[in-house]
């Protein structure tokens, strides 16, 4: 694994962790204020759930090195013409 790919994976993991922990904390805060009489355990529970989900996603990302994340998509332009015109050559598919 190259250094740039490793850096991208760490960046993606840290960003995912920040989002998931923040969302868990926010949901814990809402539940704490509305249902649980301002107790602190919903905040800890929500943040812990977010941290656990982020850890699981990072672990899966580092253990599956050949997983594509959908940034580069090949588009076959000739494939449309194969179905529309019968005189197009079927052996020459050109994907960009």
From TrEMBL:
Q: Where in the cell is it found?
A: Mitochondrion inner membrane
The way it spans or sits in the membrane comes to: Single-pass membrane protein
Q: Which residues cross the membrane?
A: 17-36
Gene Ontology CC terms: MICOS complex
Which superkingdom does the taxonomy of this entry point to?
Answer: Eukaryota
Q: Which UniProt keywords apply?
A: Membrane, Mitochondrion, Mitochondrion inner membrane, Transmembrane, Transmembrane helix
Q: How does it assemble?
A: Component of the mitochondrial contact site and cristae organizing system (MICOS) complex.
Family the entry assigns: Belongs to the MICOS complex subunit Mic10 family.
Its biological purpose is as follows: Component of the MICOS complex, a large protein complex of the mitochondrial inner membrane that plays crucial roles in the maintenance of crista junctions, inner membrane architecture, and formation of contact sites to the outer membrane.
Q: What name has this protein been given in UniProt? A: MICOS complex subunit MIC10
Q: Which organism is it from?
A: Balaenoptera physalus
């Amino acid at each position: 694994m190259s250094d740039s790919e490793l850096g991208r994976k760490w960046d993606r993991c840290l960003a995912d962790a920040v989002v998931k922990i923040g969302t868990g904390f926010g949901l814990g805060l809402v539940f704490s204020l509305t249902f649980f009489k301002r107790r602190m355990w919903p905040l800890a529970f929500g943040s812990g759930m977010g941290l656990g989900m982020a850890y699981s996603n990072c672990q899966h990302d580092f253990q599956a090195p050949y997983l594509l994340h959908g940034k580069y998509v090949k588009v076959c332009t000739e494939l449309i013409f194969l179905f529309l015109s019968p005189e197009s050559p079927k052996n020459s598919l050109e994907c960009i």
